[in-house]
Every structure is written in C-alpha cells, then in structure tokens.
C-alpha cells in the first residue's frame, strides 16, 4: 500500500495542473529517479543496500559530509540496508522533520510483464517499471529535495532528516524502519514524519478529483487457525473432521462484523467527502459521522468495500491447507486469517474477538510473527494540515484535501509506536485502476511525478521554516 490511496473518487470535474516542463533541475532528478527504479530491490533478489549507497553517493557529491550520512544494515541482512541523512537547521528549539520512504519493491516477473519491470520506459505520458510509484517516486523526491537544499545553501529553521529503509513490502522480512525505531531512535527523532499513504486521485483522463492526507492507518496482524484430529481411514468417516471443523470456523468469521468505530480522522473524512457527494451514499457518509448509531446509514456504507473497511477492524481468510492423503481422514487443517486492526486495538483483543466469534475451543488461534505494534493515529494537527491545504489550493485549485485513514499499512506504524506522528502526504496522483501498483505493468503519469515533486518540495520547505 502505499502511495496510491484507495479512496472513492469524488464527482468533481476539476482541471488538472499544467504539464510539467523540462527544467534543468528536473533532468537531474530524473537521473536519480531512473537509477533508483532500475536498481532491483526485491527482497532476497535485489539489494536495498546498493540503492541506499547510490543515493548516499549523490548526496556526498552535492556536498553532504560523511557525518551527515548514516548507512546501516545488519550482518544477518546485508542486502536490506538503508540510509539516514541529516540536513541541519538553524534553530536549537525547533524539533526536526523526518522524511520517510521505503526502497524495497514487490516482486515482478519479466515473463508476466509487457515491459522489462526493472527498466524505466516512457510511454503514452507514463513511466513504466516496478517501483515507479510505490515507493521509489517518494524516495527519489525526498533525496532530491535534500540535494537541492544543499546546492542552494538553504538554511531551514528546523533540521530535516531523511530515512530510506527496506522491508516495507514483506511482512516477514527485516524491516529497516522498525530497526531504526528500536535501535536508532535518537538518530531519527522528529516532531513528525512525512511518508507515503496520501496522494491524489484522478478520473483517469487527466483531471485530479481529490487530494488526500493520510492521518492514521490500521495495524496488520495474521493469525493461524488450526484444527487437529486423530484421522483414520477415509472409508469409515466420523463427524470429528479437522477440515470440517476449520471450515465451520471460517464460515463464522465470514459472517462476523467487528463493531463500527470512528476516529477523528475517519469522522472528518466522512463529513468532508460525504458533503462533496450529491447522492445517497454521500448522505449516509455525513449521517454516520454525526450519528454512528445510524443503522440505515451503516448498512448502505457497508455495501462499499472501502467504506466498510474504514469503519472497523476486518479479518479475512487468505491461505488454506489441510489433510495429508486423498484416502485418509485429515489429521490437521489450517488457514491464515489476515486482520487489519482499527487504531487503538491490540492483536490480543482481536484474537479474543475471533475466538468469541468462532465459539469452538477446538480451533486454535495463534498470532503469526511478526507482531505489529498497536496503531496510534496522529492528531489532525493544524501545524501539519494547514500548510498541506494551502499548497493543494495553489497546485490544484478547487480540489479538496481530505484526511484519510489507510485500510492498508505503511512503515509509519513503527514510528508512531515510538512517539513520532507520521502523515501520508498529498502531491502525486493515481488513476482509478491503481496504476498497477503491486501488480503488473506498474506506472506513474509523468505529470503526476513532476507536479508531485514540486508540491512536496514546497511542502517540506513550509514545514522546515516553522518555529
């Protein structure tokens, strides 16, 4: 998940920003971006460490000193390294700003793609390749911003830090953001962090409809459900069957809805986005924000998969296994249940809710490592929201900025756990089809990339100049 936020498109016919022009600074940025995209950073295949070293070399060439750059990795995961860069501010009182992005990408098989997934290709107004959007666009924009600061001799009020990490796309992999939070907390200390998770949504024909700022996200936790029996010969079946017992449990999970909840972010989202709609769904969005007990509004919103997920914890079966021979009663059956936990709730609470919904002590429920921290949403801090709104009005006249809670997950959860509120920023936009992120033929509209880069450069400066 990731840079393109899954929100329902608002029916607004608004003009898109003018096409990006070819400027010298854009050409320099493209060199960095292209090198990063074409560096394979798939876990166990490529190397985030190599990508981090390449960006560090560019920062040094721009004038960064060795003491401003920290390349890190662990002996157990030498290719999953990252980079922290520090650009000093003039104030001793203003807390730093942290820019976060991940270097790793989802796997991509050449035989499945129309184009080479690790070669940047320009076609029909888009850049195609794995990571063009998620999340190498943001990683390149952040690194490019610090290079431009250095070359211009810019002196911000607050220190600006950059953390480029690995492991965001794979739950079982070494995670650089988590490692920094646990082992180098002082190095990344900041008043707040900017991250993926926000962004714009277009109509697919060049018009930007809405810009989003992610203010909070769910926590991800997998659970293994397992049933066991003595088994035996399939010619003499008995009622106690591990597969049937597991199936019964999964049917109960399918039928179970976690209670409806609202956070400050989702309440603001439903009020703002609902008011912009002129249909029954929009009225239901406003109604549920005002009165969470409105069952008619809830029933209507539950018919939309995005809104249903924004209103509660969700758990769904994703993997299944069972039995050991086609002529034997199963001795074991198991399933993975993937839960997206509403902010403020623990894995233990969710596990207890699943057990209560299943109501069968013979079904074991075990959390699957890694265990994520409790999701802690940041506040709708005007110090963060207002500059973003001001710049959205400048770059996207008439387009609303809507606060959202991601139903997915980012590395921001690890920063929030150690007291660094993290916001997914607006800027670049995506098409309604998701632009192939995590799928085939990932792409980003070229205008989106360059306009988003300009927007984020100005946004970082606006925050950096705050006392």
């Amino acid at each position: 998940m990731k840079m393109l936020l899954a929100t329902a498109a608002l029916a607004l016919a608004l003009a898109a920003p003018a096409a990006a022009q070819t400027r010298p600074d854009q050409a320099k940025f493209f060199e960095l971006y292209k090198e990063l995209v074409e560096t394979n950073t798939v876990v166990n295949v490529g190397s985030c460490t190599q990508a981090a070293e390449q960006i560090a070399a560019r920062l040094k060439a721009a004038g960064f000193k060795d003491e401003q750059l920290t390349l890190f990795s662990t002996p157990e995961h030498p290719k999953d390294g990252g980079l922290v860069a520090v650009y000093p501010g003039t104030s001793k009182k203003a807390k730093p700003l942290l820019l976060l992005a991940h270097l790793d990408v989802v796997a991509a098989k050449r035989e499945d793609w129309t184009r080479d997934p690790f070669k940047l290709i320009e076609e029909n107004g888009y850049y195609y390749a794995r990571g063009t959007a998620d999340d190498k666009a943001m990683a390149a924009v952040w690194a490019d911003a610090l290079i431009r600061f250095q070359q211009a001799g810019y002196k911000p009020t607050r220190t600006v830090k950059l953390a480029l990490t690995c492991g965001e796309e794979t739950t079982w992999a070494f995670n650089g953001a988590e490692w920094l939070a646990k082992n180098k907390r002082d190095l990344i200390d900041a008043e707040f962090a900017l991250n993926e998770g926000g962004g714009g949504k277009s109509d697919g024909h060049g018009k930007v409809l809405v810009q989003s700022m992610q203010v909070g996200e769910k926590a991800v936790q997998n659970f293994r459900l397992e049933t066991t029996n003595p088994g035996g010969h399939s010619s003499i079946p008995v009622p106690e069957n591990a597969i049937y017992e597991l199936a019964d449990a999964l049917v109960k999970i399918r039928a179970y809805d976690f209670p409806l909840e609202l956070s400050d972010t989702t309440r603001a989202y439903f009020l703002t986005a609902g008011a912009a709609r002129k249909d029954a769904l929009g009225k239901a969005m406003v109604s549920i924000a005002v009165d969470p007990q409105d069952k008619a509004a809830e029933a209507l919103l539950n018919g939309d998969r995005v809104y249903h997920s924004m209103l509660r914890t969700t758990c769904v079966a994703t993997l299944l296994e069972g039995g050991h021979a086609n002529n034997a009663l199963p001795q074991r059956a198991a399933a993975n249940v993937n839960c997206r936990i509403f902010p403020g709730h623990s894995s233990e609470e969710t596990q207890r809710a699943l057990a209560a919904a299943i109501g069968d002590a013979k079904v074991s429920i075990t959390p699957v490592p890694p265990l994520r921290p409790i999701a802690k949403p940041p506040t709708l801090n005007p110090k963060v929201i207002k500059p973003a709104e001001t710049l959205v009005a400048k770059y996207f006249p008439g387009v609303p900025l809507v606060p959202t809670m991601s139903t997915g997950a980012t590395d921001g959860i690890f920063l929030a756990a150690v007291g660094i509120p993290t916001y997914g920023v607006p800027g670049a936009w995506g098409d309604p089809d998701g632009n192939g992120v995590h799928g085939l033929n990932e792409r980003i509209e070229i205008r989106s990339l360059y306009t988003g880069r300009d927007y984020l450069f100005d946004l970082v400066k606006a925050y950096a100049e705050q006392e």
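The mean pLDDT is 94. The CA atoms of residues 12 and 48 lie 40 Å apart.
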